[in-house]
Amino acid sequence: MELEPLGTLTVLIARQFRMPDTGKGGRLIGEAGELRWEGDRVMATQRGNSSGDWVRLHPDGSVSVDARLVLETDDGATIAMTYQGRADRPPAEGGIVYSTPTFETDDERYTWLNTIQAVGKGQRTGDVLVYELYALR
Fold first, then answer.
1. With contact defined as beta carbons under 8 Å apart, do 117 and 102 qualify?
2. Which of 6, 26, 56, 57 lies at a 20 to 30 A Cα distance from 63?
3. Tens-level pLDDT at each residue, the chain (137 residues)
């Protein structure tokens, strides 16, 4: 197995809502204010306001990530990105997020994204979460 760099995804977190105990653990819902994906093959920003992350807070302090993002490339293509992931503690408390992104697009220039499984490693500083993204080969 090899890792092929896809670039850096930077997420500015605009707002968060905390639900401390939903009966299935806590929930932290974060809205993305800005997104930027910078890579050799993809340069994109957030499209619309629907990007966000529904983090599950587990009793042991670990978290599960469930994110959905909508991106627009600098040349006009739309890419939907979803990823799940895990961290030993919330990213705001220094937890490193390991994620498994997948992509969907109908733009022929980027359909290669539809066939890959990506992995990412994310770290948060303040309101900014930065992921290094790689395709598994």
1. yes
2. 6
3. 999 999 999 999 999 999 988 888 899 999 999 999 999 999 999 999 999 999 999 999 999 999 999 999 999 999 999 999 999 999 989 999 999 999 999 999 999 999 999 999 999 999 999 999 999 99
d(CA 1, CA 127): 33
Neighbours of 78 (CB within 10 A): 16
DSSP per residue over 17-42, as a string? EEES--SSSEEEEEEEEEEEEE-SS-
Closest residue by Cα to residue 132 from 97, 102, 105: 97
CATH (domain of 12): 2.40.160.20
| Residue 57: half-sphere exposure toward Cβ, Cα within 13 Å | 17
Query: Which among 98, 66, 63, 60 is positioned nearest to 82, based on CA atoms?
Result: 66
Of 36, 39, 35, 42, whose CA–CA distance to 7 is shortest? 39
Helix (H) or strand (E) holding 62: none
Number of domains in the chain: 1
Kindly compute the dihedral angle of the four CA atoms of residues 30, 47, 12, 133, in this order, to the nearest 10 degrees: 100
